[in-house]
Amino acid sequence: MKSISLSLGRGEKSRTGGLTAKGRAKYNNATGSKLKAPVSAKQASKSPKDANRRKSFCARMSGVKGPMEKNGKATRKALALRKWNC
Known about the structure:
Layout: H1 21-31, H2 41-44, H3 48-62, E1 69-70, E2 73-74, H4 76-83
Antiparallel strand pairs: 1-2
């Protein structure tokens, strides 16, 4: 299986964590994946399916080793956890 080299350009990586809609579309087209947007606590309260997805993401990402800050700035891990309200 050939590995896919995917570099994200301007406007495809969100400064507040995760990928933008454009970045998710690029990734999905390149890999055949079905990435979805993050689920906030407010959205999760409206749908049990979204609530379970959020709970699962928070459980997995909260256990990932690594710093929450580097050189005084939040890491991508910290930004993702903040975006999902973990």
